[in-house]
Model the fold of this input.
Amino acid sequence: MRSLVFLSGVLFSATTIAAPSVEQVTEHYADLAHAVYTDAYTSSIQLREANKALLASPSEASLQAAKQAWLNARVFYQQSEVFRFGNPVVDDWEGQLNAWPLDEGLIDYVATDYQFELGNPGATANIIASQSLLVGEDNIDLSEITPDLLASLNELAGSEANVASGYHAIEFLLWGQDLNGTNAGAGERPASDFAKGSACTNGNCKRRGEYLMAASELLVDDLAWMSAQWSEQGDYRSELLAESSEQVLRRMLFGMGSLSLGELAGERMKVALEAASTEDEHDCFSDNTHNSHYYNAKGVANVYFGQFQRASGESFSGPSLHQLVEGLDAELAASNLAAFSATEQQLTAMVTSAEQDGVYFDMLIAPDNQQGHELVNGAISALVESTKAIEQTANVLGVQGLNPDTADHEF
Amino acid sequence: MKQLICASVLMLCSVVSFADNAGQSQWLEQEQALFAGYLQEFDSSAKHLAESQQGYCANPQTQPDALKQAWLEHYQSWLALQASGLGPLEDLRTLWAISYWPDKKDSVGRAVTKLSAAISLPKPASMAVTQRNLRSLAVLLYAESERDCALLGLVTEAYLQQQGYLSAALAEYLDKAEPELLVLAMVDSYHLQATLMQKKLGAMFSAEHQRLRPYQGEAWRSDQSMWLLRAQAKQLATRYQAGLKPHLAQRDPQLAEKVEQALASLLAGLPQREPSVADQALQPWQSSQQQLTELAGLLSSAVPKALSLNLGFNNHDGD
Done:
């Protein structure tokens, strides 16, 4: 086994290896992030337009079209999450877009027995039905629902469950609460919740529409900003590529491993499974969790293989970690390939379960669904194996210390 | 001879020269002895908990003070075994099975209330994990409206099944694991303990919003979340003294001292009061958070480096 040796911030190979260079791989990583965020951005514009059409003419058909636009948008955003851990510019920003679980009673009407975070003063605030909100000594003016207002209400009063904006807020507005627990069925919000005049159900339809548009606008703005950060002229791209190659590789690998293990296998799957808790289901209103998980895992593989399927259908590919590993340890490259392939198969099985068999993630985790547990555990085990592949990749690339925040830090 | 070790279950990788590490075996034996002691305490306090429950329920007109004390002592014995480095998924599973925390939306409270409203009680083995853990017992002990001896007996019995399983599995692991894997698990467990304490403090205190969140502590019903956190920090410091410090000092005495100092500062600075929304004195919380960050950094980065170990990913790499 050959290994790479870092010296004075420059990567040398112990023997001559075929292209690509590490610098090409790290640069392509930034290109890849730009491509993914750009598609997330364009899909958010389509979501905003679909929401606009829903409000212009509320019907079951226009609500369905808006839901479909949301589902399409998730395909790209979920693939972007691999850039979150390891890149502070993303991690510091993403809460406004994808924070969960949320106390949806902050936003709109909810069932009387809904489960919310203990001690959260905003848990039943119902912004849509309220003109103001008293938190402690602060009286917050809610009369005009704007993107800025929603951004300011995130984590209101220090509670992380106060999520006023982002994909899950929009998801809740389109689907409503899923009151089926671990039984079949997603949220069932009627299109008439956005109707005009006397056709309006559950009150405040105009403000609900204003909320939906404000959240949609904020999402578009946020994604435009992040896409720009990774562009050729982007601030973050410049900052990242000015770092040592080892540190950029570390960021890449840390993002992949953290999403695979701690976040996806652990927080998003194992926790929900062990607790049989639909409160811990990622896309809990729409029952799109299988796809969210699938595209998270795909995002990890994208970084490893340096590839991404664009919204246009074109394939975007370039110098990859896999090619680097191939040049150093063909056996490891082959086993890595097998590990990522097995993960994709296991995650695909959850998608098939939902979309062909009608057994969604929240049904898979039901306490008495032994077969469902096996399916989820299979996906978790596969992610554990592909995380091991990421660790071994770090070893062969000579990246010591996986956490970019602490690897070179003097405490 | 240098060798590469990657554990398939533990997800830890190491590049370490075992042959030239004479002190390592001795250290490992010491850590194993410490863990054996923790397990013994975990088992004996569980037995005492069961006896106290039976004692209280033989005379339920009295106050359950002795039972509450037995619960607290048993909870304390569990702290040493949290984040034991047995592997990310196993650690997660045991955390949920024994104490089910974090529990932001009080799933345990809701599950126990549902159980108490059930017409017929389930068999222990079929109970949900939210209904059969230490925090489920806290609901029954500290919410008077839920206190019922039929339920207390059932939940205690169901919990003890879980506890017994975990204790046996840990004992078997300590006995049979390859020394190379155990070395990594032990070093990782120090780091994971510190990270878990960071998580516990962070749940009760939002530095960003400068606000205390009392209901997010692991023992908010008994008002003992901070007490338990202090106990955990004290236990880790004691373990470090007897376990890792002498071994680390052979490699890097300055670092060994630094970790000890970090633990001492943490212990001295941890808030003495339980969190309350009315509490305006947030400085101890703020500084404890910084101290825990520093400690976790030392244990995750500097210590493995000094011991020529490379730790892999874990549950806390994520949100």
